[in-house]
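For concreteness, we quote verbatim a single protein encoded this way:
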Amino acid sequence: MASDDRQRGATDDLIEQGRENVPSPEMNSPKSLEPANPIVRVFPQAVAALLSLSALGYFIGWREASAYYGALGAPWAVSMLPPITLLQLSSDIAVFIGISAYVGFNNLATGHATAKGLGNSAGIILIIAFILYFGNLVLSRWVPPLVIYVVAMVVALAYATAAGFTIAELLGHLKLSEWRMNATHMPLIYFVVFVGLFQAPDQLGRARAEWHLDPKVTTLPIVNLPGAAADSKWRLVHIADGRALLISPAKERQNCTFRVIEAKDLPSIAAASSSAAK
């Protein structure tokens, strides 16, 4: 009996040693299954965010350029602009939307504002913008074009600020609803798209065109073309992809004349005013 007990004890010891020597699943796992580096996980999200911002910037710039060249009487000129130029045009609107959205969300996160308060602020800013806009329309015949442009630019930036506050308001409502979209959020999204992506750049482009169309106050640089009439006043609108767009401005859009020439054929360009627009 004693020998049997000793044999069973030795067997149990061998079994226990075998269990200890068996490698754990964690040890057998390949390194490829280890948790990914945080930078690797964030990289696709950063790329997606960058592409989204670039697309929004491109669209805002396209809206402003379309409004500008449409008001000049040359809507076809938008196709001459490279994408980088459209992104540069969107900088003012995009920066104001981004800053106002950051300020609004920061105040929301720190408890200095509520979603309802941000909505009220956006509404007040929008009312002020409407008052300035309609005041511009009524007084446009008596107010200098430069003043009209400055006021219109203020209106456009007010639209952008209201859109940024609305983005922060939307984030506040989403947080309260545990980040679930519902029907009450859609009007806020429509407001941001309409005001921030359509109205603001459109207003800015049209105002800039009205300023540049007036021969007495336009800041577009003068170009002296060989063989042109002595009384002709050709001005440079832009240079893109080696081609220059010229305009002979007039107060009435239908009286404007355009020319497209190779940039290398420009004989001379006068210095532009320091207050020139983009």
Observations:
- Residues 163 and 193 are 8 Å apart (CA to CA).
- The chain has two domains: 57-213, 222-265.
